[in-house]
Amino acid sequence: MTGFGLADAPFGSGRMVAEIRTVNQRFLDVRAKLPREISDLTMFAEQVTRERLRRGRVEIQLRLEGLAADTGILNRERARSAYSALCELRDELAPGAEVPLSLLAAVPDLFAPSHTPDLEVARESARNAIEGAIREMDAMCRREGEKIGDDMRQRVALLRTATERIVARREGAQQEFQRRVQERLTHLLEERASGMDAQRLEAEVALLAERSDITEEVIRLGSHLDQFEQALTAEPGEPCGRKLDFLLQEMVREANTLGAKAQDAVISQQVVAMKVELERLREQAQNVE
Asked: Where do the Endoribonuclease YicC-like N-terminal domain residues begin and end (predicted)?
C-alpha cells in the first residue's frame, strides 16, 4: 500500500532528515537519494530500508539541515581545465569574444567540501532518521490497512449471503433441471418413435443432473471464505497479501465452475454478483502486504 514518513536525527550542529515514500508493488525496490556530502552512505541507506520492509517501490531521500555553511575548497585544476576548454571553443566558434568566468558556475563539483563528515556519526544519524521515517510510514499504512480490512470483511459477508442464496436454490434448481431434461428427451423420443428403455432414460437424466450438482463447489467456496477471514485477522506485521491473492484466485475458479454448472437464472445472477465482489476484493488485496 502507499505510505509516507518523515523523521530526523541529530547530526553535528544540525540534523539529518529522512523522507520515505512507498507505492504498492509485488516485489521490493528501494531507491535512495543522498546529498553529495554523505553520498557514500547510499548503499547503507538502502540496506537499512530493506531490513524493515518486504515489498513495494520505495523512495528514500536524506537531506542535511541546520549545518554551518561550508564554502568548500576550489578545485583549481578542474577550474583551469574547464576554462581552457571554453576558451578553445571560443577560438573555434567566435574568435575574440569574451569568455566570462561566471560560466564556471555551471561546472559540476568545482568546489569540494572543506571537511569530510565522520562516516560513523553520519551512519548512525542516517539509521535513526530512516527508522523513524519508516515508523511514521508504518503508522500511516496501518490506518489505511484497517480501512481496507473493514471493506474486505463487508465484501466477504456479501459473498456469504450470495452463497447462502445459491444453497437455498440448489435442490430446487437441480430438480427443475432434471425435469426439463426429462421432458425434452421424452419429447424427442416420441417424435422419433424410439424404443429406448424408460429406465435407461431415467438413468441418463439422473447422470446429467449429478454432473450439474454444485455441492462440492459450494463447500470449497465456504472453506475459502473461512480461510480468507482468518487471514484478515492475522497478527499485526504478519504478511498475508499473497495468501489473500491465492484464495481469491481459488474463489474465482469456484465461481466460474458454479456459473458453468448452474442451469438456473437465480443461481446465475448470484454468481455474477459474486464475481463482481471478488474482483473488488482482488483490487483491494493488491494493497495488502
From this structure: 1-148
Local structure of residue 39 (DSSP, 8 states): G
- Say which DSSP state 103 is in: G
Which domains does the chain possess?
3-70+121-141 (3.30.230.70), 73-106 (no CATH), 143-173+213-285 (1.20.58)
Contacts of 246-255 with CB under 8 Å at 24 or more apart are 248/278, 248/281, 248/282, 248/285, 250/220, 250/224, 251/159, 251/221, 251/224, 251/225, 251/278, 252/278, 252/282, 254/217, 254/220, 254/221, 254/224, 255/221
pLDDT of residue 20: 95
Q: How many CB atoms lie within 10 A of CB 18?
A: 28
3-state secondary structure 148-159: HHHHHHHHHHHH
**What pLDDT score does 201 carry?**
58
Strand partners, 8: 17
Residue 82 carries which side chain, given as an amino acid letter? A
Q: Which regions in the chain score pLDDT beneath 70?
A: 1, 67-72, 111-117, 171-212, 235-238
Residue 76 phi, psi (nearest 5)? -65, -40
Q: What pLDDT does 223 receive?
A: 93
